[in-house]
Amino acid sequence: MSSIPQELQYTKEHEWVAATANPQIVRIGITDFAQGALGDIVYIQLPKVGQAVVADKVCGEVESTKSVSEIYAPLTGTVVTINSELDKAPELINSDPYTSGWIAEIEVIGPIAGLMSAAEYAAITE
């Protein structure tokens, strides 16, 4: 069974969204379910700081020993920070997808909408 933290919000594409101290900025990553399905992650193509991202559009890529998978922006906004630790250690996504394996922080444009609660996300991963 995958870990699904209650305090996060989720997308149908298996990304998670966490609030930060700044209400306009969210932290994103891929879920425990997604990393488990991918297998051992060997490379990640991170979005660029300053890059505009659009909800439900590709903003990066994860390569594992099994396949290559796209990362979708869960919200529309601008990338303000990336987790550069993943350049050296992409396997952090496997070992700790919700803490040290985060991918980027996005300054959100407009309201935060269209995300699922932990219970809703759990229902689609069963």
Q: Indicate the overall shape.
A: globular
Number of E strands: 9
User: What CATH first level would be assigned?
Assistant: Mainly Beta
CATH homologous superfamily grouping: RNA polymerase II/Efflux pump adaptor protein, barrel-sandwich hybrid domain
Structure commentary:
- This protein is of the alpha+beta class and 126 residues long.
- It has a single domain (10-110), classed as OB fold (Dihydrolipoamide Acetyltransferase, E2P), CATH 2.40.50.100.
- It contains 4 helices and 9 strands, in the order βββαβββββααβα.
- It has helices at 32-38, 85-88, 92-95, 118-125; strands at residues 9-10, 15-19, 25-30, 41-45, 52-53, 58-64, 68-72, 77-82, 104-108.
- Strands 1-2-3-9-8-5 form a 6-stranded antiparallel beta sheet. A 3-stranded antiparallel beta sheet has the order 4-6-7.
- A hairpin with a 5-residue loop joins strand 2 (15-19) and strand 3 (25-30).
- The longest helix is centred in the C-terminal third of the chain and has 8 residues, at 118-125.
- It is globular, with a radius of gyration of 13 Å.
- The model has no long low-confidence stretch (mean pLDDT 95).
